[in-house]
Protein 1
Amino acid sequence: MEKHTQRVGIVGAGVVGLAHAWSAAERGHQVTVFERSPRAFGASIRNFGMVWVIGQPDHVQDVANNSRDRWLRAGREGGLWVNPCGSIHMAHRDDEWAVLQEYAAVNQAGSRGSWLKLLTPEEVLQRSPAANPNGLLGGLWSDRECCVDPTSAIRSIPPWLERQYGVQFHFSTAVVHAESGQVGLASGQRHVFDRIIICSGDDLATLRPEVFHGIPLRACKLHMMRTTAQTEGFRIGPHLAGGLTLRHYPNFKTCGSLQALSDRIESETPELNQFGIHVMASQNHRGEVVLGDSHEYGDAIEPFDRQEIDGLILRELHKILKLPHWNMESHWHGVYAKYAEGLVFEAEPEPGLHICTGLGGNGMTLSFGIAERAWNRWEPTNE
Ligand SMILES: Cc1cc2nc3c(=O)[nH]c(=O)nc-3n(C[C@H](O)[C@H](O)[C@H](O)COP(=O)(O)OP(=O)(O)OC[C@H]3O[C@@H](n4cnc5c(N)ncnc54)[C@H](O)[C@@H]3O)c2cc1C
């Protein structure tokens, strides 16, 4: 197939916009990215930085693995810190351990079998000095997960793409109109493109709002916090997740034993369900430990951050983690858009005008793979 260079316009310099920009630039296109903030500001800089392959259902495993490989490549070529640290789901209760055992048994024969391993409590502690040994029954190791520092990674990708591929970035530049072939800026300027991709995150009201009408896309607010650097080079090792997390990601939903765990949480600690709390930890290259999180959806979202929620998150984290110190450097919240009928919402309301959003809590994990999948669809290679 004959290839020609396209002018590609992208709205949004979050991870979804950057992923599409990179894929387009690699295909030799002339790429321009518009970002309304002076620097990336949305969900993509507020997350754990977990490339969380294990949490993805079977039908997107290839996308997730491709995304992971591209993060590692971005690390090598763009000079980003990308740590292939793996992950451990820890069990401190019998019902959590039952889910991990069932999941490991079911996946033993499949492609996941080679990268999953059940660990004894001693093996968990060998891999992570941050695991709380009190009541620890075991863990599930996965070697697929990577860690990035979201703020520095997302802010370092634009200069790298500029340097390596000549991608042009216009920060502090809001796009106020988008139609097939052109975008309009707040300044009144118009820019002409062959292909436009709107990656505006949770802003579903500014550009082409009619496309979202009746689509099950909901905003979700999450509470997060980060310790100051841990002392004397203390490393938690892999990403760590507690048993509560088993309710959160779709991959564990196939386990029949999950129901007993969910029932126990509903009767013992319903406040965790009220605020969608499950607990995880990652550690960046500065030694700070990123901790979270909670989930409040749609109309329940308030601009105010309730201390009660952070208190519940910390209460649950103390049950599974032992850190040298818990001094907090910051607390914040992030908001993402979540599509209820799939892992991503992709639409083409007019020829050459695309929308990509709704990745929920999986944007850091899947975006590079989703963008590759989209570009392969738009421009299949017939080698
Ligand atoms: C607290 C939290 C923790 C998370 N943890 C993880 C994790 O560990 N692993 C994982 O895989 N995922 C995680 N996620 C999910 C992930 O962060 C999101 O799925 C992802 O960042 C969404 O990326 P995005 O590019 O769609 O949105 P955003 O990052 O919000 O980017 C959208 C960008 O578009 C810009 N924009 C919008 N409208 C316009 C306009 N009209 N003109 C110009 N610019 C515009 C915005 O300013 C913004 O910068 C987490 C999310 C949160 C909030």
Note: The mean pLDDT is 96.
Protein 2
Amino acid sequence: MPLDLSHKFPRRQLGFWPSPIHPLLRLSRAVGVEVWAKRDDIASGLAFGGNKVRKLEWLAADAVAQGCDTLVSIGNIQSNHTRQVAAVAAVLGMKCRLVQEEWTKWDDPVYDKVGNILLSRLMGAETVLEGAGYSTAIKETWQRALEQVRRDGGKPYAIPAGASDHPLGGLGYAHFADEVAAQEQQASIFFDTVVTATCTGSTQAGMVVGFSAQPKRRRIIGIDTAADAAMTRAAVTKIARDTAALIGLNREIRDADIEIEPRFAGPDYGLPDAATLSAIRTAASLEAMLTDPVYEGKSMAGLIAMAKSGEIPKTAKVLYVHLGGAPALNAYHNAFA
Ligand SMILES: Cc1ncc(COP(=O)(O)O)c(C=O)c1O
């Protein structure tokens, strides 16, 4: 039975769904396992899109219903998430205030000028560069930004990092599971393995909940990109359980439902290692599929290594979920020099 969440929770459609699925023929040959991609990076549309558009559809409806006039969020300087919040604010006709913290030390003179932050500024968002260090905790910098909007007479809508630890944060990727099941039926295929990048948690959490509602079990491999698998596991678990309770899932989310793979996160959040960079080149040169050094390059590295080593068996049918992120590539040009 589909979850049918769009009939149960208000949603403002912002992307162009369903996002396409297609086989990655040359990559499959290279790794020895059948791999398909689900292209949320393409179908999410708004200003180069990404996974946040899918999540923000539910928060946008809530922000409008509450009569808010300013979206306030937080992320890294090169955050894809804050760029997508800026995009959503633009199409809703709202203002946008973004706290851009330094979550990573990437040494490039244009790191705070090109890529995601440039696009956010083009869309009219106010970018406040302050704060440091990745964490899923509620940040004082974000609270200050909310307070500033109130002091200026506005009505802020608070969106946490990654739109994750928010009551509605898991709905987008729970709904995604219905979309995948419908596409599987059309293509006469079943993906027994799903590979996704994971960080602030609501993408994987939503998937875990959405796929749990379906009769056939599958493996969902979350490739940690925060370089802190324990923190990522805690975030995914909390959001999955909260989302399951919100939608009234008739099955408990167990610890074993949440697979976090720690080996491909590189030295730190936002920092690629040799395997990340090699995976980015592989996906680009075999499939013209662009991945980034912060997220999808790491999930691609995990997919390649686990398929080649047999940790993903040769008989598997893998769905690699592409969650966006390519706009950050320009800020990392020196990684490819
Ligand atoms: C491109 C991309 N992939 C993956 C992720 C991870 O998603 P989540 O934060 O929901 O775990 C993010 C955001 O953090 C992202 O921007």
Note: The beta strands are 21-23, 34-39, 70-76, 95-101, 126-128, 156-159, 193-198, 219-224, 259-261, 317-322.
